[in-house]
Specification:
Number of helices: 27
Keywords: c-di-GMP, Cell inner membrane, Cell membrane, Coiled coil, Membrane, Nucleotide-binding, Repeat, Transferase, Transmembrane, Transmembrane helix
Subcellular location: Cell inner membrane
Shape: elongated
Membrane topology: Multi-pass membrane protein
Main location: membrane
Largest sheet: 8 strands, mixed, barrel
Number of strands: 27
Structural class: alpha+beta
Radius of gyration: 47 Å
CATH architecture of the largest domain: Alpha-Beta Barrel
CATH class of the largest domain: Alpha Beta
Pfam family, one: PAS_3
């Protein structure tokens, strides 16, 4: 029994020992399995990083290729379809395949399902309709027993390569036909073509975006785009280099490039990503700016930093140009109004601190529009640049000119002695006027320029930029009234006039929509027959709170603000409409005279406005008379001549208003082909007691008769004067002797009474 018990105990111990050994083996296997799984997880992460950074589309599926287990982001870029669709239906990518390529691809996939690798090229159609060529390679993934557990594949967009290959095949075929007898040369050509094909293949396979790999601070890899960005010819010129080798010593923030490069690489590793702008130098020394996007990549226990480089140089230069143009005049390079105002504020603060004087000068070129109209805008632009240069050359270094717009400039004279400010500014104005009066030579053209200057002094005329600029502008307006080559210092009453102008302008702007404008008509009498032959339409303004306003109080404002254009259009339409109504009411042949403004001629649509007024009213063109002034006719003689001729051809009558007050010329009167001269009232009023006025009137009448023109005298207020004019040969008259200007309704009554008086005589 004891020996038997011992035997049993030995057996138990043997069994226990075997169990322990098996347990140890299992634990060791589990530990190794755990290590293997960790390694596999790390390998999977590495593979995922690689697949997400390559240009090709990588996929992984189950054994019957019915479900996609993984697809890299390149699918969406190449197929331009969402990956969600691919994960939902593995066959989604087949739906994009060109119908002609489907059978061959399906056959390849069938072999793939049997465990055979495949390599195939086919076409896909993107949602936008474009076709792309795809190279696709699939292979089975087997376990240790050789059983297929997964299928994987790699797809690449080879559209550009196929295009090159097609071109090369076409070239090869052509060469083969021509050089069949020269086999040796053909082989050499084919070798060269294959080399060229491979070179182009590499170019298209490389990423277009510049990319660099860093290990530590040194470059361990780069693509061709990076070499091109840095203007290097060989990879050896870049490998092993550090960022500061291609950078200025200091970055824009003042930090050393070497220090900042070390920090950016460190932050990228710590934060998982780091983006920044970087000033760099190309190999030829040209500076630029990069957007650098850093991403750390960890593999096999080592870390490399992947850098994507985007060249911002052109964008930065464009932005700098935009910023420059925001504060500078593009034509002259001078500061514009915005920058000029800022600098003026700065100079005002400096003058206040140093108890110094300061002057703001507004300068406007006289008759600059003449240069653009007589020559061309290119010459006008050149002239403005020359004026800017001359202004800058005749000012002190601290006195900065700026261009406000058009032909208007602003000069700031700083650091003036308060007691001598007026004298210093006067001297500067005289120098500017003298400088600009010197001949400008533009090409082969000699140009003569003058200007007007308005001046506001600080602190007497204001102690802020807005007030000083406003007062200098008011002084400029007064200088322009004084004539060419004038300058004026600001005086308080100028602002009162300016405020009155602005108030009138703003109120007048509402006069048309509020129907506050009305026409009054003054009869025109034919002296020989004693009958009414026409009326002159005269504009009035029923201004709220002011009553009936005469044209002399608002027409200059309308002309100065441009409102005369829509107002003049309304006058033409209303006068033609009323004349047509009188004709329909039994006054056929009655002529309506309408005054035209020089501003209407300048805006370019006057001819169309006249045509529209006649068309809408149905008025006979022969019953419309347009009154022009002498000065207006002499501004642009060729253009006016053509327009007057067209009006005369249509039958429209044309008269010269206020004749005798301008620069009368028999030559231009003959060329203009007008119908009538209107003798200014200044000669008529004192004609009875002033021999010179009487002689002028007689001369005008005789001249008109010689040129076969009619004459009309305005301002006739007594019968003696009318008789004398009839004796002198004047054709028509108008004035208070017959009637003041009347509204249309009152004029109708007056016409009936005039007819009754005429019949009773």
């Amino acid at each position: 029994m004891p020996s038997s018990s011992l035997t049993d105990d030995g057996l138990v111990w043997q069994v226990a020992l075997v169990a322990l050994l098996m347990l140890a083996i299992m634990l060791l296997r589990n530990r190794r399995l755990s290590v293997t799984r960790a390694a596999l997880a790390e390998r999977e992460q590495q593979l995922r990083l690689i697949t997400e950074h390559i240009e090709d589309f990588f996929w992984l599926s189950d054994t019957d290729i019915s479900r996609i287990l993984y697809a890299s982001p390149a699918y969406e870029r190449i197929w331009q379809r969402p990956m969600t669709e691919l994960y939902a239906r593995a066959e989604a990518f087949l739906e994009a395949v060109h119908p002609d390529d489907c059978p061959a691809l399906l056959e390849a996939l069938a072999g793939h399902r049997r465990g055979e690798p495949y390599e195939h090229e086919y076409r896909i159609r993107r949602p936008d309709g474009s076709l792309r060529w795809i190279w696709d390679r699939g292979f089975p993934i087997r376990d240790a027993d050789g059983v297929v557990r997964r299928y994987a594949g790699l797809a690449r967009d080879i559209t550009e390569r196929r295009a090159l290959e097609d071109a090369l095949r076409s070239l090869n075929s052509e060469l083969e036909r021509k050089v069949d007898a020269r086999t040796a040369e053909m082989q050499a050509a084919n070798a060269a073509l294959r080399e060229s094909e491979e070179r182009f293949r590499r170019l298209f396979e490389d990423a277009r975006q510049a990319m660099v790999l860093f290990k530590g601070r040194r470059v361990t890899g780069a693509n061709r785009a990076a070499l091109e960005l840095l203007r290097l010819s060989r990879m050896e010129q870049l490998l092993g280099r550090v960022p500061e080798d291609f950078s200025p010593p200091l970055q824009p923030d003042g930090r050393a490039s070497a220090d900042k490069a070390s920090e950016m690489l460190r932050l990228a590793c710590e934060q998982g990503r780091y983006d920044l702008e970087w000033a760099f130098l190309r190999a030829d020394g040209e500076p630029g700016v990069l957007q650098v996007m850093l991403t750390p990549m960890r593999q096999n226990g080592r870390t490399e930093v992947h850098a994507v480089l985007v060249d911002l140089t052109e964008r930065k230069q464009a932005q700098e140009r935009v910023d420059y143009l925001a504060y500078h005049d593009a034509l002259t390079g001078l500061p514009n109004r915005v920058l000029g105002r800022d600098r003026l504020e700065r100079d005002i603060h400096a003058a206040r601190r140093h108890h110094a004087g300061l002057a703001v000068l507004f300068l406007d070129l006289d008759q600059f529009k003449y240069f653009n109209d007589s020559y061309d805008h290119q010459l006008g632009d050149t002239l403005l640049r020359r004026v800017a240069e001359r202004l800058a050359a005749h000012l002190r270094g601290a006195d900065a000119p700026c261009r406000l717009g058009g032909d208007e400039f602003m000069l700031v004279l700083a650091d003036l002695e308060t007691e001598r400010a007026v004298a210093e500014v006067t001297d500067t104005c005289e120098r500017i006027l003298a400088s600009l009066s010197e001949t400008f030579i533009v090409g082969e053209t000699q140009l003569f320029v003058s200007c007007c200057i308005g001046i506001a002094l600080c602190p007497d005329d204001g102690d802020d930029a807005e007030t000083l600029m406003s007062n200098a502008d008011a002084a400029l307006a007064e200088a322009k009234k004084a004539g060419q080559g004038s300058y004026r210092f600001y005086e308080p009453q100028m602002n009162r006039e300016l405020r009155r102008f602005v108030e009138t302008r703003d109120t007048l702007r509402l006069a048309l929509p509020r129907e506050e404008l009305v026409l009054h008509y003054q009869p025109q009498i034919e002296l020989g027959a004693g009958r009414v032959v026409g009326v002159e339409a005269l504009l009035r303004w029923n201004r709220p709170g002011h009553g009936l306003v005469m044209p002399g109080d608002f027409i200059p404002v309308a002309e100065g603000s441009g409102l005369i254009v829509p107002m003049g259009r309304w006058v033409l339409n209303e006068a033609c409409r009323q004349a047509a109504a009188w004709h329909a009411g039994g006054r056929p042949g009655l002529v309506v005279a309408v005054n035209l403004s020089a501003v209407q001629f300048g805006q370019g649509s006057l001819e169309q406005d006249v045509d529209a007024a006649l068309a809408s009213s149905g008025l006979d063109p022969a019953c419309l008379e347009l009154e022009l002034t002498e000065s207006m006719l002499l501004r642009d003689e060729p253009g006016i001549l053509d327009l007057v001729r067209r009006w005369r051809t249509r039958g429209i009558q044309v008269s010269i208003d206020d004749f005798g007050t301008g620069y009368s010329s028999l030559a231009y009167l003959k060329r203009l082909q007008v119908n009538k001269l209107k003798i200014d009232r200044s000669f008529i009023v004192d004609m009875a007691g002033n021999q010179e006025d009487r002689a002028i009137v007689q001369a005008i009448i005789e001249m008109a008769r010689t040129l076969r023109l009619k004459t009309i005298a305005e301002g006739v207020e007594d019968a003696t004067l009318a008789s004398q004019l009839r004796f002198m040969g004047c054709d028509e008259v108008q004035g208070y002797l017959y009637s003041r200007p009347l509204p249309a309704s009152e004029l109708a009554t007056w016409l009936r009474q005039f007819d009754d008086r005429s019949r009773s005589r």
